[in-house]
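quick one, 164 residues, struct below
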Amino acid sequence: MPREVLSILVDNHSGVLTRVASLFGRRGFNIDSLTVSATDDPAISRITIVVHDDAKVLEQIIKQTARLEETREIFPLDTAHSLLRELLLVKVEAGEENRSAIREIANIYKAKIIDLSIGSMVMELTGEPEKIDGFLDVLSPYKILEMCRTGITALERGGVHRHA
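---
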């Protein structure tokens, strides 16, 4: 099933994220990625949710989320006309024998080395989810000690989104 990215503008107050996430959980919808951030208006937050479901299920998700009192607007993002980004922090085992090879991989992907110790290296990479996946694939021969991905955050290209 294709990846769908939903952008939800909600009132910025306590409990909104819980209400949105529990709606998905109660209906049996699996969330692949969820990010929440402030917007230019302090009264509004943006929730970006990534799901893999068919069009009928997606339509149901949108209708049920739109009914929530705190939801100001919900709309699917056309990924061809949107900017999707994700942040990765990854700690790799890096001794003297493989440190330069790992550094070369980091340079190719434009990852930033943010910590270096005797036995490990921590890198930061921001980019499209496919870039993050590719970076992790190339790093797979090395021992990944820890990693954390933020999940997708996204905006449409061009002017301000006006759907309502």
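The mean pLDDT is 91.
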